[in-house]
Design brief:
The complex is a heterodimer. By secondary structure, chain A is an all-alpha fold. Chain A has ten helices and no strands. Chain A is elongated, with a radius of gyration of 20 Å. By secondary structure, chain B is of the alpha+beta class. Classes of the chains: A mainly alpha, B alpha+beta.
């Protein structure tokens, strides 16, 4: 009895230690023992699922397929990871590629979900809301609905940078590494995406007023 | 959420998956690097060939045909090679994109660097004559290339406009030469009043006029530059007919 309590205690300590380890340290440990890879899955599963959902709008089942493939690929390619990049950028890049590849294979239409209870999701809405002149807007749901429609109408490349920048809170370097584009191009694309978004959102706002 | 983690971990264990070995990625990077380097080197050889073809071009004769410097340039540009350089630069640019950090460099910087590198290496390759064996091999083994070159040379034969160019076939003791122009027609030319020293096999260009079906009277004559011009002295200036 005493031994099993000690073992449980050791196990808890080990788990606590693992949680404190950096991504790079976990990569090194996973190369020695696959069980440690589970910690990386724990750490990124939610984030990546949310990211894949935002850029694809796919259902839970498809997202699970994508994530499973992403994590397996990540595991198989662990030796290709180096510290010049953040692990986060690296695994986001793999997720991005897997999502795009899944959409191509299945030829699914992308609809971008924006309505969510997630805090970060609402921060995207806030940021984008500030970018357009929505002072006249009074009802949050209308704004959300209009932003969702506006995002749906954006080309993929614009939607992707907006999601990474404002939903995933990535900096330009990370976006550059995930989407494989120079930082200057990232900045330009974000500016264009915001302009395009404003344009689309304003048009939709006018239409709504006309309709109303 | 734990369900997915369990599924992944089970798959890894069940299928006994192990991360691909480090050498696998090292080899891939080496192959990619080699491909980039090879593309740049091939592009450099093409640059060397362009330099050579432009240096070998007899601009005086071309100008006689076209009447302007710009038209002359357009008339003799080795377009195939320029296109080839463009393709290699594009390929190098694309391959660099697939390297780990290639995307971090501005495309304009990559383009400028590859162009500068190709020009520098190309000039060096031209300097050491590395382009000659390449072109000779192409001439021997690639019929369309040979035909393209013949067409370029044939552009120098416009007897109706007083210009013929070709290779000397025979020289008489009286200094009458037989020349086969680059379109395959033979002409007899009297060089007895010229200080020009003709040799069989020498390629020459002449400005003058057609006398009859077989004879051409030259006003000035010039040896065309050839591949071996780097090693041999040529009679490069015009020799005028003062008769």
């Amino acid at each position: 009895m005493m031994i099993s309590v000690l073992q449980l205690s050791d196990r808890r300590c080990e788990m606590k230690n693992l949680k404190e380890k950096t991504d790079s340290e976990l990569v090194m440990l996973s190369l020695k023992d696959p069980d440690h890879f589970g910690q990386l899955v724990d750490r990124y599963e939610k984030k990546l699922s949310r990211y894949a959902w935002r850029i694809s709008g796919l259902d839970a089942e498809s997202l699970e397929d994508i994530l499973q493939e992403t994590f397996i690929k990540t595991y198989l390619n662990l030796n290709d990871y180096n510290n010049d990049f953040s692990f986060s950028s690296w695994i986001y890049k793999i997720t991005h590629n897997e999502t795009v590849s899944y959409l191509r294979k299945n030829k699914k239409l992308i609809t971008v979900p924006l309505e969510t209870e997630d805090e970060k999701q609402s921060s995207l809405i806030e940021v984008l809301k500030n970018e357009i002149d929505v002072e006249a807007e009074t009802r949050q749901r209308d704004i959300v609905s209009r932003i969702q429609k506006a995002m749906d109408m954006l080309p993929d490349k614009y939607r992707e940078v907006l999601v990474l920048r404002y939903s995933e809170d990535m900096d330009y370097r990370e976006i550059s590494d995930i989407l494989k584009m120079p930082m200057g191009t990232v900045a330009t694309t974000i500016n264009r995406a915001k302009e395009k978004f404003k344009e689309v959102a304003k048009k939709m706002h006018l239409n709504t007023q006309n309709d109303g | 959420m734990d369900k997915l983690k369990a599924k992944i971990m089970e798959k890894i264990r069940k299928e006994d998956m192990t991360p691909r070995p480090r050498w696998h990625f090292a080899l891939r990077h080496i192959l990619l690097g080699t491909a980039i380097l090879s593309t740049i080197l091939i592009g450099s050889l093409a640059v060397a060939i362009v330099i050579r073809q432009l240096t070998l071009t007899d601009w005086e004769l071309i100008r006689h045909l076209t009447g302007s410097h710009i038209k002359s340039a357009f008339a003799v540009m080795p377009y195939i090679w320029i296109l080839f350089i463009g393709i290699t630069l594009l390929a190098a640019d694309r391959l660099l994109f697939y390297t780990k950090k290639g995307h971090r460099v501005k495309p304009s910087v990559i383009a400028l660097a590859t162009v500068a590198l190709s020009l520098t290496l190309g000039t060096l390759a031209y300097g050491i004559g590395a382009d000659e064996p390449v072109e000779n091999t192409l001439r021997t083994h690639l019929l369309p290339y040979k035909q393209w070159e013949v067409r370029r040379q044939a552009a120098l034969v416009k007897e109706d406009r007083g210009l013929i160019a070709g290779e000397i076939q025979a020289v008489t003791p009286q200094k009458e030469i037989t020349i086969r122009d680059f379109r395959g027609r033979e002409w007899k030319v009297d060089l007895s009043h010229s200080d020009f020293s003709p040799e069989i096999g020498m390629q020459i260009g002449m400005i003058g006029r057609v006398q009859d079906k077989e004879h051409f009277e030259y006003e000035n004559i010039r040896q065309l530059k050839r591949d071996f011009s780097r090693r041999r002295t040529r009679q490069s200036r015009f020799h005028f007919n003062f008769r």
